[in-house]
Amino acid sequence: MTKHALELLIEAADKAIMQEDFDRLLEIYAEDGILVIKPGKNAAGKTEIRKAMEAIAAHFDHTLRVRQAGMKVLEAGDTALVLAKTLVSAANLPAIERNATYVFTKDSKGEWRCKIDNSYGHELLLQNNLLE
């Protein structure tokens, strides 16, 4: 079965994160994209996202590993929701599994750009006690 273009793009993003190729990584984001750094803390726009990614890499002693263990893409016109099982680990972080949520839109050239990068998924609701 052929992979969706967004699956390939997310795989490229994971590779860029692990190689700390932040120039390549930022190409994937929309100018006004949002990265959930941790519940309650977001980075907005490419400048903040780059600073956050650099800080995250340093926090994990430059050993961060990210990979997807399954994805579902729901596409409607120029917008797509990606639900993913994301595996994250580092030398100072035991392997954890997240149910990530990503939102992509097509830019004026028809290329997919990440608008919302939320590797925590619905866990954000739990952090605010909204599901209790």
TrEMBL record:
It comes from the Bacteria. Pfam families: SnoaL_3. Residues 10-113 form the SnoaL-like domain. NCBIfam families: SgcJ/EcaC family oxidoreductase (TIGR02246). This is SgcJ/EcaC family oxidoreductase.
